[in-house]
Design a protein that fits this description.
alpha/beta, D-Maltodextrin-Binding Protein, domain 2, 3 domains, seven-stranded mixed β-sheet, two-stranded antiparallel sheet, 10 helices, 22% strand, elongated
């Protein structure tokens, strides 16, 4: 059987005011109530809880040990109530309760998290639901109406996009891989003799093939991190974002492949709104923050 609280938020507020303002009289003045009303509310609170929260010494009301514990817990309760009311206000002003953000895995995590941290500081209660995709997964999210903002390789027709970030992908393999031992620039025929680590397109509708994918021998993984791990363990070669392998290249665990052609290629990531005619204020704020963070870091 569901139970309901016997103590009201107003009673907790009276309790907090007595402590914060230094006594019953001060709390009464602060809350614009009579001192007798404050005394009654506090007496009723302690009676309902069955615990002494205050002890009076002279003219001062001091916390008991139990009172100190419940005071801190009560602040969490009243703070949450204020947040709920503020959130309801922002909803009444047309602010979204949640933003669905779909991001291609090639977009740098540090830029994304920096933008989300900035947004969190001014979100006013708006939540963000983040989903990571690969290649055409971004377009699928737009076409399926499963998102509010998309950062992806391209947007399908009918959606307006702004260029956001240029990713350079380079062919790499473990430093001891056999391809590095060849005495000539690596050809497609050379690549075909070795295992290719491929990041699988997460989309379903119109899958995209980016990179050299003609090898019959391939390991298919679902993320950049998995591809990097496989290549670092010598399982094959593959194209990975330069920013993601920069440390490995410096440390010497990976080396860029000296290909005759296609050693690197660049792909632009675009930012798109799923509902350009009906963009909420929080959605617009988040998109602006993402753009600003990218602009300051390129």
């Amino acid at each position: 059987m569901k139970t309901y609280p016997r103590v009201t938020l107003e009673q907790w507020r009276v309790f907090q005011a007595i402590i914060d303002k230094g006594g019953y009289a001060q709390a009464a003045q602060y809350l614009h109530r009579s001192q007798s009303a404050i005394s009654y509310a506090m007496s009723r609170l302690q009676q309902q809880l069955g615990i002494a929260l205050l002890k009076v010494e002279g003219r001062k009301a001091l916390l008991t040990e139990q009172g100190q514990i419940l005071l801190e817990r009560s602040r969490l309760l009243t703070d949450e109530a204020v947040e709920i009311e503020n959130f309801a206000y922002h909803l009444s002003q047309g602010r979204e309760a949640e933003i669905k953000l779909v991001v291609d895995a090639a977009f740098p995590k540090d830029l994304l998290m920096s933008a989300l941290s900035k947004f969190a500081n001014q979100s006013q209660g708006t939540r963000v639901q983040l989903r990571e995709v690969v290649l055409s997964g971004a377009s699928d999210a737009l076409l399926s109406d499963e998102t509010d903002i998309v950062i992806g390789v391209q947007a399908p027709s009918g959606f307006l996009s702004d260029p956001l970030y240029e990713v350079e992908l380079i062919a790499v393999a473990h430093t001891n891989h056999a391809l590095h031992k060849l005495k000539h620039k690596i050809t497609s025929a050379d690549l075909s003799k070795h295992m290719h680590v491929v990041i699988q397109d997460s989309g379903e509708k119109e899958k995209m093939d980016i990179g050299w994918l003609s090898s019959q021998d391939r390991w298919t993984v679902s993320s950049i991190d998995s591809a990097l791990s496989a290549i670092e363990h010598g399982l094959g070669y593959g194209w990975l974002p330069r920013y993601r392998v920069s440390e490995q290249l410096k440390q010497g665990s990976l080396k860029a492949l000296l290909l005759e052609q296609g050693a690197s290629y660049k792909a632009f990531l675009f930012i798109s709104f799923a509902h350009p005619q009906n963009i909420g204020p929080a959605t617009r704020e988040l998109a602006t923050i993402i753009k600003d963070v990218v602009k300051k870091n390129i």
